[in-house]
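User: I'm writing a tutorial on reading structure tokens. Could you give me a worked example: one chain, its sequence, then its tokens, then a sentence or two explaining what the tokens reveal?
Assistant: Sure. Here is the example chain.
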Amino acid sequence: MTLTSILSLILLGAAAGVLSSMVGIGGGVVIVPALVLLFNLNQHTAQGTTLAMLSLPVSFAAAYSYHQKGMVDWKIALILCIGFVVGGFFGGRLAVNIPTLTIKKIFGVLMILIAIKFLFIDKK
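And here are its predicted structure tokens:
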């Protein structure tokens, strides 16, 4: 891996970290598309790499900042975590068996639906 690639990945991680802590996005919305489009990873590898990165306590610093301002409901977070771990296990088993083009289309449609909701439907 070249120094340019390493620095680009660090920059991508930093940008995703900033966006993640600011608006709650990062891994799926920023890093996965960047790994596919800029680093030529296939969709499955980009998703797996992002999940591996997120499995470390990378978001703790951002969560702690929110916690200091009283903006974290730890009870809800822990309950969600249980479902997230179970869902992540079964979702990962399912996803690795779906063809790359299909998983890429599912990902794209999900991003479009989220964008439509936030741009045109969300009234708050």
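What the tokens reveal: The mean pLDDT is 87. Residues 3-121 form one domain.
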